Q: What sequence folds into this?
């Protein structure tokens, strides 16, 4: 994924700095299937999303004006909009799986995201390294007792590298 990050730091309580962080990201999600036999069957699907997380930002350590290192935590809701997908099917037998060729039925995604990381503040900006988890609460296929799938929500773990510059001090 890649995108734009905006952060506003509002309060400082004792040694904890509090703020909000919003992002607008282009993200690729999906999966690969490889069959463990001699058939050479494989399937992959790449799904493109515009995602917007809005998170609380809590940091501990040196204030940004002092130039130093901080540990931070982000958590909050995230929404996403399905932009399109790409499938690659290499299936030599006539039997395929139900998800092969199936259109995305719910193009709006929502869920909860949380992460923790390290921020290094310098004179030229802020460098952030973060591990983040996203748990989707919506399904991209219909999921009822009569449908093929019990659950089809996104879930992923990622590592993010960010660079932020101060607009105002």
A:
């Amino acid at each position: 994924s890649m995108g734009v990050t905006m952060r506003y730091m509002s309060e400082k309580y004792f040694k904890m700095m509090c703020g909000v962080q919003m992002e607008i990201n282009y993200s690729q999600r999906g999966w690969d299937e490889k069959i463990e036999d001699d058939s050479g069957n494989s399937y992959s699907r790449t799904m493109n999303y515009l995602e917007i997380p809005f998170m609380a930002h809590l940091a501990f350590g040196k204030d940004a004006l002092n130039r130093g290192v901080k540990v931070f935590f982000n958590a909050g809701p995230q929404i996403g909009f399905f932009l399109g997908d790409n499938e690659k099917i290499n299936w030599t037998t006539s039997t395929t799986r139900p998800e092969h060729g199936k259109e995305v039925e719910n193009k709006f995604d929502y869920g909860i995201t949380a992460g923790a990381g390290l921020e290094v503040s310098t004179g030229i900006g802020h460098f952030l390294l973060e591990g983040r988890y996203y748990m989707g609460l919506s399904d991209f296929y219909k999921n009822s007792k009569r449908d093929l799938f019990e659950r089809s929500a996104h879930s992923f773990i990622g590592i993010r590298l960010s660079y932020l510059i101060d607009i105002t001090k």
